[in-house]
Amino acid sequence: xxxxxxxxxxxxxxxxxxxxxxxxxxxxxxxxxxxxxxxxxxxxxxxxxxxxxxxxxxxxxxxxxxxxxxxxxxxxxxxxxxxxxxxxxxxxxxxxxxxxxxxxxxxxxxxxxxxxxxxxxxxxxxxxxxxxxxxxxxxxxxxxxxxxxxxxxxxxxxxxxxxxxxxxxxxxxxxxxxxxxxxxxxxxxxxxxxxxxxxxxxxxxxxxxxxxxxxxxxxxxxxxxxxxxxxxxxxxxxxxxxxxxxxxxxxxxxxxxxxxxxxxxxxxxxxxxxxxxxxxxxxxxxxxxxxxxxxxxxxxx
Length: 301
What we know:
single chain; alpha+beta; Arc Repressor Mutant, subunit A; 2 domains; four-stranded antiparallel sheet; 59% helix; 9% strand
C-alpha cells in the first residue's frame, strides 16, 4: 500500500509530495482552478498535508486583509494554528472555519483510497456583513498577540472584504467537493503510471501487469517476465513505486473495474471477475480500500 505502516516517515512524506506535485501540474487541476477563480473571484490552492505556511497568501484573488495579517509573524502564527484545526477536522469531509476576524476559509480533502494526500482550500470571505464591533474585536486580538499594524490600512482592507451569502457559499463548496472526487480518481491513475525516471525493469513490469491483470497473476510470474528473482524484484518494485506488488495489482484491477462500471448493463460482480478478482468479498474489501467507497456508491455517483 502507498502508505504502508512499515515505511518511514520520510518515505510517506516523499510519496505525498510526488502525488501533490503531479496533481498540481495536471491539466485537470489547472483547467478547473482557472475556471473556478474566474467564475467565483475566489482564491483556490491545492496544498500539502501539514503545510507550514499560509496556503492562500500568494493566491490569485486573495483577500488584501488576510495578506496584511500574513505579513506579520504573530498574526500569521494564529492563522497557521487555525490551519492545523482545519486538518484535524477535515480528514473525512469538507470543513469551513472562521478566524478571530470572522473571515471564513474552507478545506476539502483529496483522498487516495482511505488516506488524505492533499487539500483544496478557498475562502477568505465574510459570510456576514462587516461591522465596527467585529473590527474592534479583531484589532484588540491582534494587539494581544503582539502584532504591529497600521489600523487605518487594516480597517480599510477589512471593510473591503468580499461578503458572500451562506447559501451561495455552500453551493461553491459543493463544486469543490465534486472536483476533489475527480482529483481523487486521478491520484490512483498517477500511482499506477509511475515516472520516466524509474528503472526500465520496473516500467517493463508495469506494462506486463497492465496487460495481464485480468488473469491469475503472481509476483513470481511477473519477476520471471522481467528476468529477475522474486525476492529482488519485490524489493526493487516496492522501492521504485512505493507499493507492494500485491497492492499495485489490486489498484490496477480497481481502476479497471471503475471503467467497466461505466457500462450501464454490466453487473458489479461480473465486472469484478472480469478484471481478475477471485471473490466478491475480496473485491468489495479492496475496492473500498482503494476507492474510498463501496462499488455500488461509485456507480451511483
